Amino acid sequence: MKALLVSPPASGVRLGEAPEPSAGPGELKVRLLECGICGTDRDIVAGKYGTPPPGRTDLILGHENLGRVVEVGAQVPDFRVGDLVVATVRRGCGICRYCRANRSDFCETGLFTERGIKARDGYLTEFYVEQPEYVVHVPRAHRLSAVLLEPLSVVEKAVAEGRRVLGRLGPAPPGTDAGPSAPTALVTGTGAVGMLAALVLAAEGFSVTAIDRHDDRTPAARLLAQVGVAHVDVSAGLSALKGRTFDLIVEASGSPSLDVALIGLLPPNGALVLTGIPPEGPVPGSGLDGGVFRSVVLGNRAIVGSVNANRRHFESGLRHLTAFRTRWGTLAEQLVSRRLPLGSYSDALGGKAEGTIKTVLTLSD
Ligand code: BGC
Predict the structure, then answer these.
(1) Crossing angle for the helix pair 149-166 and 311-328, nearest 10 degrees?
(2) Closest residue (by CA) to atom 2 of ligand 1?
């Protein structure tokens, strides 16, 4: 079968062949319908990230998957041929307490694997085989948006972590004002993760602002306007935010210099959740100052790293896709702005085309 192959740490990507798997007992075989492309995939293709499986030099790329079950192995009760499914990405180390409790997104050893990223083949191929515990059913109504479920799961976790931090103070002390009616949130970046974060936060009752380095004419800015999210162009700097602060900041741009600056946009007790994976190396022109970090401590500000997600985040993602549909119709589907056939992989992986939010490679109907 066809497979999109990479060989990190060497750069490059090629369409090759891989042996077609079959489902053993307790396994599902799934035909890939489509697979989203994100910054992680582009970093892997650039040779900056990713690891092939042990003893191999190549890795099948792809983790933002959507597929259809074509074979159900013996002793798999809850799946049928034809089911629409999304598989999770991370597989636990089997050693640490969190992996053993099915919370590999909090793995302590670092010995986890990730399909299409770290030591385990991904989904940019015609078929994959997986154990049902890592596979989530998708209602047919979400056929056109479910390829976003994996990035949405990452957002679900980030927002849940941020809300947990905001909730650490408990209810307003008796006899005091409960505070402003809607908590404020800032999302940095209007790629798929930023857009999904904006939708989740808006659906959860936050007053949301999203920033990027474009004016209001982009598809992202237009979609944000439809859901009542304020869009601010910060190409001339964060001063465009006019000194406002935000209770919860979800960073989705992966820029370390921005990460530092965002601390300054937190009120006391506010939370900054970083989801972007910045490159290693010095922060250009950052002028890093210990005072910044001191203010984090003295202001009880929280900076929360957040990576990956577990099954319950995928499940809450599905609930949000349903909520988005009820509230905003096909808006979530419109985040998938470019669908290309597998053969156009160079285009898809070459860089983020101007105005696109999510590029998806299609493998089957
Ligand atoms: C994926 C996550 C993964 C992370 C780090 C992201 O692009 O969506 O599932 O944990 O990369 O490898």
Answers:
(1) 100
(2) 308
